[in-house]
Amino acid sequence: MLALSCVLCQGENWVTVDQERFYLNGSEYHYIGTNYWYGVNMGAPLSGDRDRVRKELDQLISLGVTNLRIMAGGQGPDDREKRIVPSIEPEPMEFNEDVWLGFDFLLNEMRNRGMKAIVPINNYWEWSGGFGQYVEWHGGDFEDPLSFYEMIDVQEHFRAFTEYLLNRENTLNGVLYKEDSTIMAWQLSNEPRIENCTLYQEWISSTVDFIKDIAPHHLVSLGNEGTITNCAREGNEVESLDYVTFHCWAQNWGWFDPKDPSSLDSALVHVREYLDKNVEIANDLHKPAVLEEFGISRDDASYSPDALTTLRDKYYRFVFEYVVDHVKNRSSNIVATNFWAYGGMGRPVSEGGLWRPGDDFIGDPPHEPQGWYSVYDKDSTLSIVKSYNNLLRHITHGISNKMISRSE
């Protein structure tokens, strides 16, 4: 009764947090979503492909996928390799309006379909410019992204970009981004890293406050990888963060070798331990938790879209089962997950090679082998996504009915 009425008083369509759960329109909000980081660029009228965006969003809706983690453009210059181009900010506080129009388009199309977005504002990694580009623009070394936290000019620039982003008015519907309930949460960065936990907490706290002063209805999360990195617990301990995030990369971290299919079983033991460890932090902090990145390659480490996904499908089932089981049994605070990543109708031009301007955007960022982790619109994996989304929706519906019965 308390949770239901608390959510309703905050208005419809906003995702809120109460009693260690997400709520949307009076019901608990759980999801199996995806990462669709390239959506902003694909929505650009001149450099993108809006027809593809519409079709891919419809594909995702048919799978029950309504939550997308998208990148807020990126930083230039646009002649860098391993970089999203065109960037939304080719030079400091000089913007590419075509990409901003792509952002408007993506949010409006998601809004029309009742979808929700999680938006990382920055990136620790080079593929969207991110920390290193901010540092370089202000006289530092691109190869030293950790300077990002300490350089005053960098922090002023980052806040100026963030303020511009939050105050952007969507040209298609007139809604300010800071007032758009399509956006579930702003995220401070994709996979931020640091060594000084005290400095980390200070930066997180002040940045969250800055965002919430401008966009008080939106949730804010960190976007970190979890306990595989330093200061993971300390970062999520910042009280003003609304929920805990973590990522799981069994193959990248050496637990799984796609050339040795038998290694998957032992990898799943490590994965379960890792999930348990990070969920325990969320439980201790009394916050919801989201596993917002996970994936493995196609069979035999192939980069070909035609290769089988037998092992990947088994892995996805394992992770989805973990999340759905915990939601059903109320056994922890994990409430949702986003797989990495939807490649949709795109296909790699150079299988296993680097992305080049003009190539299809797929799920693999420009700095990674193309075709590595992408889930395409024809993959068998999608039937598993759909099946578990249906199961999760059924469980959530049952939870909502119990809440209504108690309130009457």
Low-pLDDT residue intervals, each spanning 5 or more residues: 1-10
CATH topology of the domain at 36-236: TIM Barrel
Q: Helices and strands, in N-to-C order?
A: HEEEEHHEHEHHEHEHEHEHEEEH
- Beta-sheet strand percentage? 5-15%
Q: Name the CATH homologous superfamily of the domain at 36-236.
A: Glycosidases
Give Rg in angstroms.
20 Å
> Which shape, going by the Cα principal axes?
globular
The end-to-end distance, rounded to whole angstroms, is 9 Å
CATH architecture of the domain at 36-236: Alpha-Beta Barrel
- Number of DSSP-assigned strands: 13
The major sheet is characterized as: 8 strands, parallel
Strand arrangement, major sheet: 8-7-6-5-4-11-10-9
- Average pLDDT confidence is 95
Number of helices: 11
Question: Which CATH class of the domain at 36-236?
Answer: Alpha Beta
Structural category is alpha/beta
The percent of residues in helical segments reads 25-40%
| Quaternary structure type | single chain
Put the structure in a nutshell.
The chain is an alpha/beta fold and 408 residues long. The protein has helices spanning 2-8, 39-42, 50-62, 97-112, 130-137, 152-166, 197-214, 232-236, 263-285, 310-329, 381-407; strands spanning 15-18, 21-24, 27-28, 31-35, 67-69, 116-120, 183-187, 219-221, 244-248, 289-294, 334-339, 342-344, 375-376.
What is the element layout, followed by pairings?
Blueprint: H1 2-8, E1 15-18, E2 21-24, E3 27-28, E4 31-35, H2 39-42, H3 50-62, E5 67-69, H4 97-112, E6 116-120, H5 130-137, H6 152-166, E7 183-187, H7 197-214, E8 219-221, H8 232-236, E9 244-248, H9 263-285, E10 289-294, H10 310-329, E11 334-339, E12 342-344, E13 375-376, H11 381-407
Parallel strand pairs: 4-5, 4-11, 5-6, 6-7, 7-8, 9-10, 10-11, 12-13
Antiparallel strand pairs: 1-2, 2-3
Helix pairs in contact: 3-4, 6-7, 10-11
